[in-house]
Amino acid sequence: MMNRQKPTFAALSLAIALISTQALAQDDLPRTPDGKPDLQGVWSNATLTPLTRDRELGETLVLNADQVRAMEGGHQEFLEAEYAASDPDREPGAGAQGGDDGDTNDGYNEFWKEVGDRIQVINGEPRASIIVDPANGQIPFAGDPRARFARAPGAPAANDGPEGRPLSERCLISFGTHSGPPMLPVMYNNNYQIVQTEDYVMILAEMIHDARIIRIDDEPMPHMQKWMGDSVGHWEDDTLVVSTTGYHPQHTVFGASENLTVTERFERVSTSEIVYTFTVEDPTVFSQPWTGELLFNAKSADEPMYEYACHEGNYALPGVLAGARRAEAEAANP
Asked: For the region Disordered, what residue ranges are annotated (predicted)?
């Protein structure tokens, strides 16, 4: 079982983090032989900071110490309850503590998850959401977003066959947009390895072992559709700027269309941090471009990133489809 320490004196730890980050930002950053900031290494973007902001916070982007303490402490209390010993006398189907809390219906219990245990701090600011623009911290969908996620005419239904199952379930690409772009944290394995040369930057996501190759100072490949899009980068002073278009039509990023463009900025601000900024644009789906900021934290040099071993046609897939056929048979012959 994981050993997690309860976050105490949150304000003090936050202040220490701010001081250390500011001090490191004044140091000379690691650079490659061609003089560019060295982005190489293994990084994690796990954080308790959500993508979209709690609507009760409105346009409040920066949290105060009490809010940080409540969010981090609340998560720790949740974990402690999840890790508590189960009631051996509970009724079948009941939760771990005997109540109907639904935890037995969860495909993963908390032991397998790793969402981070801290609110991210960028530019000295504890953030209430990853999204910084629009000011309300929400994705600015144009119209009803459900229309963008509806099944396309003629496309297989979820249980018609393997082709109808989600891409992540088929181990073709990670769930959410963890592999990117934009590269967002998910419930576990929020690790990336960056390898950099003068002409290429490769970002390997642990989830599904997705590797994205960014060509430096190149042109987009016309009519090229890739799972993670076609990424071309260039350096603006010490910031790597990457533009991605040409996503595979089956990989819908927040319901976006073929008009999607994602622009990313990688700025190494200290020896242990990269500030990752992304802007999502698709005028046919979003009422305006929207931007997020995320902190990538360096992992220890002696901590390798292990392969996430996933394979298409995993053991659950035949069971899912067999169950669907059984349900159809029972409906046809009640």
From this structure: 85-107
